[in-house]
Design goal:
The complex is a heterodimer of chains A (597) and B (233).
Chain A: H1 2-11, H2 19-30, H3 35-45, H4 49-58, E1 70-75, H5 78-82, H6 85-96, E2 102-103, E3 109-114, E4 126-128, E5 131-133, H7 138-149, E6 179-181, H8 194-200, H9 204-213, H10 226-234, E7 241-247, H11 256-263, H12 265-278, E8 281-288, H13 296-308, E9 324-329, H14 339-346, E10 370-374, H15 375-387, H16 389-393, E11 403-410, E12 416-421, H17 426-432, E13 438-443, E14 449-451, E15 470-475, H18 480-495, H19 501-518, H20 524-540, H21 544-548, H22 551-559, H23 561-567, H24 580-591
Helix pairs in contact in A: 1-2, 1-3, 3-4, 6-7, 8-12, 8-15, 9-10, 11-12, 12-15, 18-19, 19-20, 20-22, 22-23
Chain B: E1 5-9, E2 12-16, H1 22-28, E3 52-55, E4 58-61, E5 72-74, H2 78-93, H3 109-116, E6 140-142, H4 152-156, E7 166-169, E8 176-179, H5 181-184, H6 189-198, E9 204-206, H7 219-222
Parallel strand pairs in B: 1-5
Antiparallel strand pairs in B: 1-2, 3-4, 3-5, 6-9, 7-8
Classes of the chains: A alpha/beta (597), B alpha+beta (233).
Chain lengths: 597, 233
Amino acid sequence: MRNAVQNILKKFGNDRGRLMDILKGVQSELGFVNEEAKKLIAEGLDMSYVDVEQTLSFYHFFTDSSRGKYTVYLNNSAVAEMMGRSDVAAAFEREAGCKFGSVTEDGLIGLYDTSCIGMNDQEPAAIINGKVFTNLTSYDVKDLVAAMRSGKVVSDLITKYGDGKNSDGLIKAMVANNIRKSGDVLLTSHKAGEGMVKALDMEPAEVVDIVKASYLRGRGGAGFPTGLKWDFCRKSNGEVNFVLCNCDEGEPGTFKERILLTEYPELVFEGMIIAGYAIEAQEGILYLREEYEYMLAYLEAVLKGMRENNLLGENILGKGFNYDIRIQLGAGAYVCGEESALIESCEGKRGEPRNRPPFPVQKGYMQQPSVVNNAETLASVVKILKNGADWYTMRGSRESTGTKLLSVSGDCKYPGVYEIEWGIRVRDILDMAGADDVQAVQVGGPSGECIGPKEFKRTICFEDLPTGGSIIIIGNKRNLIKDVVLNFIDFFIEESCGSCAPCRTLPPIMKNRLEKILNGHGVMQDVKDLEQWGAKMKMANRCGLGQTAANPILSTIRNFREKYEELIRKDVDFDSGFDLAAAVADSCEYVGRKPNL
Amino acid sequence: MAEKIKFTIDGKECYAEQGQTILAAALDNGVYIPSLCYLKDLIPAGSCRICNVKVSGRFMTACTTPVNDGMEVENNTPELEELRKSIVEMLFVSGNHFCPACEKSGNCELQALAYKYQMMVPRFPYIFPEKEVDPSSPKLFIERNRCILCKRCIRSIKDESGKSLFAFKKRGNKLMINLDHELAATMTDEMAEEAMEICPVGSILRKEKGFDQPIGHRKFDKQAIGSDIKSVI
């Protein structure tokens, strides 16, 4: 073990900042990072053991003990549940002979839940030893577990590859693209270098001006003007600037970056190059969520090709600009999609959002000015440079220019990715997706807004309903509070970094209260409590995750109040929520007595 | 001497050094902003969220936000005091705090804030979480039932080469404080003393030592938290 760990440490120059890669490397080698490995890493990086453990224990996919020769991570998003996840989970437990959260006695198979893996359009889906398995059924599970027992290699269990580049020799995934609607900005043909050639002929400040003139806003959801962000970074006077591309789409129901990276990776990388030129950086980092590790070899090959064509490296296209890109793999943490948490993760730390100010454009990666942009934002930049700001502003609405990729999933005939112009009505999305009998639409994922039919005339744009791209359609057959809201709250409990007291404490309390209501013990005061506590989450937490973690409850109380009122008791003002009969049921049964209450 | 910046807290005219945080400046001006994770001379954590103030309609933590010229800070308002009280209550229900049996009673800042806010019983339901205690190091006893995860120990207790003795482990509601056993074994008496001292609650306890002061004669038994803050400007 000592040699293996030391080789990995050496590969990353014994650099603490690369702790994520080192842990990943050790885990790939040994299957886990146990006490001995942690000690060796701490020694090699000259840091304390608990600091190594701090990073290791933060990320869902890192482990200090074996999770089986075959490790199954079954997505537990709300849409996965809608599409039959519980049957698949039951089949896994039955066939493997162990419960979720544990490993079979022989150490062969481990079963684990995991938050949305970006496959909401083909659920139920699981990641098994890094390979994605989609549209799973109980029958598939039987075959899969049998194959594991016979010792087959996981990649051999994939019988059919998906469309497009999913069948590329370096990806070989069964994932389907499900591109349902292409626009003329992003999901359209692209000749590598078209945008950057134009950029490199200008002064960096001119590039920023064009992006400003396009009114492009950040596509991760917050909608900050991209040109302005670059400008702030340029004016920060650091020693060296960095570009970070956010591909950590963890918001349940978002999978558009999967499409961009599978079919248009050059476009994303080229956007990073243009951003790098504009802010005069020398290095860009693409932060790739571990769930998309199946694309890593392919993306590295694309980068290699770009280096060979002098689109990256020294003196790019003879214009005297030096710039390169590295890919930083995450390890399972939704909060790392928050830009300052992403930076922390890139530095090898736990993904805890930073206090602001200073903002990343002032002090970001390695305490230097850094621009963190979503992959879709950067891809849009390429087309803006190629075709001009005026061409871009012709699309979209007044305050939201251009096109947007929507990831549509849930109860509809055509789940997948749609490139639409901002300003589209929700109703039109539902028509395109073949969704009728719709109870609610979750716009912007769990942290967004849940709206009902009365609001389907509203439009998708920053002026009305903003979204990072997640559109989840919830049919009338669903129990909105039980199937959706409760699932979303579980998601936020699982994904909180835990730093802020309210975000760490309140969601579990709110979940209990919601369950009390669902169990028929709710009273009006419980709904009022949920509203008040939710308001405190918004006020008191540091980052977007914490501030929006109560949104599933708050927005459904606001827009579907009648569903809560149906559930609560009207006859009393107070109900402790304690069910004495249920509490003594076991003992009564044991002694053969009827509860005398 | 550098020019001081003028700002106000609840209308009171205050002065700050360039780059000083609202909380540090408030203390210099004799204004108390309740806090738990803040400790002078440490990099602010902004994690307990109790020092939330309102500036231009936005909530921000006073310990992490630098003062700007002309800033108007709201501090002692019913809205903010209600928020702070509820955070104190959250900290009580998310741990297992039994003040009468706690070694730190009377010197505990969480308890003192509960006194300040006249918390009789938290308005949130108790969680009674299961917490693991760690008695394994020679000088310190880590009582996680009382830990409020303020990071004071993480930020301040380091060995000669700058390595942290304390760190976080896990995340979310499973987050806990973790003591490095190897480094803890080499801890000096002074370091152990300091660790207990900087812990705002009774989570880091010195072994091999009894009480210095009897209960009833301790800091917050005699005076309310924040009542000793006087203007130094």
